[in-house]
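Researcher: Re-running this chain for the archive, since the previous output was lost when a drive failed. Same request as before.
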Amino acid sequence: MPSPHDDVRMRGFRTRVSLEEARKRIVDAVSPLGATDEVPLREALGRILAAGVDAPRPVPAFDRAAMDGWAVEASRTFPATAYDPVVLEVAGESLPAAPFGETLSGARAVRIMTGAPLPAGADAVVPAEFAEEARGFVRIAGAVTPGKHVGRVGEDLAEGDLVLPAGHQLRPQDLGILAAVGLEKVEVAPRPRAAILATGDEIVKAGARLSPFQVYDADTPMLVGLLDRWGGRSGTPSLQPDDAARLRRVLSRAAANAAVDLILVTGGSSVGTEDQVPGLLADLGELVFHGVALRPAGPVGFGVIEGKPIFALPGNPVSCLCAFDLLVGPCIRRLQGMPATEPYRSVRLPLARRLSSVAGRADYARVALTEKGIEPVAVSGASILSTAVRADGWVLVPPGVEGYEAGEVVEVRLY
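Model: Regenerated structure tokens:
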């Protein structure tokens, strides 16, 4: 057993790195995976564009009707009123898949459907409710100006316009506009695959029979969801006992697995006698840091084995959640070759009451949105996961701030 002076676990906890320094070390230690995935649009929802997309064609590609009605030369309608309508001969019709094939001229109009090509010679559409057809003629009861109810070439997108930038997470409407410019597939950032290991003699899989003093594993289901939110993916999580030799073998196999891009280990990350993970990281590879000036995720470590990033995450659920949001998530973005932006929408709102903190460390403070303003849910209780469930989001209190007073406006990242 090493002395406390030599124990790698204690060295990090005597001089914890700042959150900013921890993030910098992660970025410096991790390189983008390099490859991209080409996926069909139907599978691209939620994926992150690997490169910007420029429009290969204008949208729309032709002048088209924006309403059902009558394609006309606008000047022919200028005298028209409800009491003195203009009468034009019906020359034919234009449908979305069957355009009117002639040039419109003279006192004539073309029956037209929404989305159908505007005939040559026409420059406006009279809505159907302002016209009445009978015996081959249409009576128009109101004037229209040139361009009225017409979708012009490129009014949505001109050829060469930037449709979506690199790093954009694809939403349903984004898939629609990519299809509108003719793309069937799209290049997206890879989804880094994580191996998840939960350690502890006391944890069992949800649904299994509990022995006295055992607890159900809450961390790995949460981590699977967090990975998906940040653009990663995982295999089947593994529950491991507090056995150093066994953990060494499992970590070595995961690091050697070509299908694994990063490793997440929960539990065993602190300085207790059963906290094996930091020492194993130092033995098997490099322990980049252990201990961050952060509440409630102070006992978090990060290292590299065979070029693969490995996180030693606290077993307490809220600490695990905090460490993921602030440290693991940015690493996933880095692996994707993207800036370490967050997948959370944020709002700025006033506090309903004081949010307390302690200077010298960053605080991941869970908060709820109420009619009165932002209410702190909890600033302690790393094992009380219900505080994060009751919360609508979190406020990151910087290390140099001893909290915020009621009425101060704070930025809330929304879960």
